[in-house]
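sorry for the late reply, my laptop died twice this morning and i had to redo everyting from scratch. anyway the thing you sent over, i finally got around to it. pasting the sequence first so we're on the same page, its 448 residues, then the predicted structure underneath. double check i copied it right bc i was rushing
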Amino acid sequence: MQRLLGTSPAHTDAADLAYTDPLTGLGNGRRFFDKIERLIDDRAEDPAPFAVGILDLDGFKPINDLFGRGAGDEILQQVAMRLRAAMDGQATVARVGADEFAFLYPLVFSEDAVCEKARMLIEILSAPYDVGERTARLSASAGCSLFYSGEDTTDLLVSKAETALYHAKRSGRGRVAVYTREMEEAAKRVTRIEQALRRAVSAGEVEPHFQPIVDLRGRRVIGFETLARWTDRDLGSVSPGVFIPIAEERGIIGPLSQLVLRKATEAARDWPSDMFLSFNLSPSQLVDHNTGLHILSILRRTGFDPRRLEIEITETGLMTDPASAEKIVADLRSVGIRVALDDFGTGQSSLGRLRDFHFDKLKIDRAFVASILEDRPSEHIIRAILAMCEGLGMDVVAEGIEAEAQADKLIAFGCGGGQGFLFGRPHDAETTLRFLRDSLAAPLRKAG
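ok and here's the structure:
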C-alpha cells in the first residue's frame, strides 16, 4: 500500500515541483545535486570521469534595471530554452541561482572537451534576445570541474566549478575556466585578503596617498589625485591592484572609499585653497544611488569645499548603468564638484557620452602617453583628443608622464595638465604637506 501511495500522480507532481524551477521549467539546484549524486553512485566501482559546470550571465542586473524585471524574467526563459535545446540526450541543465545555470555532461571525459562544450553554450547565449520591440545582448562566463575519483563528492565538484567560475569572471566576460589546485590556493588567498581588508576598513587602517597634478608649462602643482594604500600587520603592503578589485567583488568598496575620502579631505583642508583634490569612484559606486549622498555627507563633516573636489570616473564605470551614473554625476555637479573622465581611450563608451555627461575634464590614459615618442598612431590619437576637448571646453590631463621629452611633446600639442613620476610619486598626507610647504613657491622640476 505504501508503495502504491508513493507512486500516485499527486505525489509525483509534488515531487516534480520540488525539483523544478518555476520560472524556466528547468530542474533546480536540488535536482542538479541529485543527478550528480546518482552519477557518482553509478560510477563507484569504475570512476570514469564526467564534467559539471556553472554558467553565470554577465551584466544581467543592468538589463533588469534597464528593461524591467518582467523583461529580465523573459530573457531568463529564453536562456533556459537555448540551453535545453543545446543538451544531448545524456546531459542535464538546471537553474541554480538568479542568473546562474548549471550543466552536467556524463560523457565528457577531459578538460579540453568540457571547455569546448562550455564555449559552445556561451556562444549560443550571446545571440540577441527579443524584449518586446527591442533586443538585448548578454554574455556568460563558465566554471567547470571534472569527476575523477570517489573522493570527489557532489559538494566538492560544485565548489570547484564555482571557484573556476570566479577565475573566469575575473579574467573578463565570456570566459571559460576549468578548476585547478592553483585556483583553490588563489581563492583562499583572496578570502584571507578580504577578511583582513574588512578588519582594516573597520579599524580605519587604509590611508590616502597623494600624487601631484601639474600645469605642464609652468610645472606648478595645481592639485593631487588620491590613491588608496594599505599595509596589513600580517600580509604586509598589499598592492591596490590586488585589494581594490577584491573590495569591488566582495562589496567592501563603498566603506573603503568613504574612509579614504574622509581622510583625504581632512588632509587637503591644510593645502592652499586654490588646490583641488581628485578622487576616484569605482563602477559599483556609480550604480549605488546613495553615492552622492555619502560624498556630500563626508564633505559636510570634514568642512571641505565641494568646489575643490574633483571626482574621476572611468568609461567602464560609466557604461555599467548609464542612467544611474548620469544621475550621480548631475547630483555632484549641482553642488560645484567637478567630474573628470579617467583613462580615456581604454573603455567602451561612445563619443556621444562626452556630450551627454558634460565632463569638466578628461584624463588621457597612460598607454598613449607611454608610446607618444615612438608611435605615430598614439601621437595622432592624443592630438585628436586635445582638439576634441578644446571644442567641448574641457580641461585635459595626460597621465603617466615619466620623461621630459614626453612632457615637451604634450606641451607642443597644447596639453594643459600632466601627472606622472616625472612630477612626483604618491606620498602620504604628512609628506605631501611638507612637500607643498618646501617647494610650492618654486617651479616644480622633478620630485621623488
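The chain has 18 helices and 16 strands.
thats about all i looked at so far, will dig more tmrw
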